[in-house]
Specification:
Blueprint lengths: L1 E5 L6 E4 L6 H10 L8 E4 L10 H6 L6 E3 L3 H12 L3 H5 L10 H14 L5 E6 L2 E6 L16 H6 L2 H7 L11 E4 L8 E3 L2 E3 L12 E3 L2
Parallel strand pairs: 1-5, 2-3, 3-4, 6-7, 7-9
Antiparallel strand pairs: 2-10, 5-6, 8-9
Length: 214
């Protein structure tokens, strides 16, 4: 469920919101930031696929040494659809791109989606003594601990904490300095206490948010 990254292995590190197939927009954003694939690292909060124009190329990022991601609920829907042979929920939520691929492209996508089944739910990134926790929707506990047993469904889907924060309620999550989430498309990045929500709806015409943490 957990994976740890040491910032000392990289020059610059960015965290990016949900991609949802917006591969070209990501490449443009990286060019604007003079991203160096030999020295820099990009971490995604999940949901590489569905709804946008190029899910296949976003899945291909999984093979890049400069790219890391946590699992999103859209990856999980795809994994479940292929595992149980029921495509309905995935297709209703933007997964129809898969059936439009050629046979060769479908094979590439299948290989990548099998890799998605090995993705962590939670990444811990240490940068100069600062602990960043990256997960898709939530860290469903009041305190973070490395390898703590938390509900994986909540990590991928839960919006209760964000809804509370948006009404001025909620509190800090103990045990880490910063928590980075996506999942819920917002008009702009939202920060409350030590929690940061960076899905700004790129696939719906919003910005693609990248945050430099090192």
């Amino acid at each position: 469920m957990y994976q740890r990254i040491e910032g000392t292995d990289w020059r610059h590190i960015w965290i990016v919101g949900d991609l949802h197939g917006c591969h070209q927009r990501l490449m443009q954003a990286l060019r604007e930031r003079h991203f160096d694939p030999y020295q820099d690292l990009l971490i995604c909060v999940g949901d590489l696929i569905d709804r946008g124009p190029d899910s296949l190329h976003c899945l291909a990022l999984l093979t890049k040494p400069w790219f890391k991601t946590v699992r999103g609920n859209h990856e999980q829907m795809a994994i479940d659809a292929l595992r149980y042979g029921d495509m309905a929920m995935w297709q209703l939520n933007g997964g129809s791109w898969f059936s439009a691929l050629s046979e060769a492209q479908q094979q590439q996508a299948l290989e990548a989606l099998h890799r998605c089944a090995e993705l962590p739910y939670i990444l811990e990134l240490r940068v100069n003594g600062v602990v960043n926790v990256i997960a898709h929707a939530d860290y469903p506990a009041t305190e973070y601990q490395w390898e703590k047993d938390v509900d994986s469904e909540s990590v991928l889907w839960r919006r209760d904490r964000l809804n509370q924060l948006l009404t001025g309620k909620g509190e800090k999550i103990a045990g880490a300095d910063h928590f980075w989430f996506g999942h819920t498309p917002l008009k702009e990045r939202f920060d409350a206490h030590n929690q940061h929500y960076i899905d700004t709806g790129a696939v719906f015409g919003g910005e693609l948010t990248l945050v430099q943490v090192q």
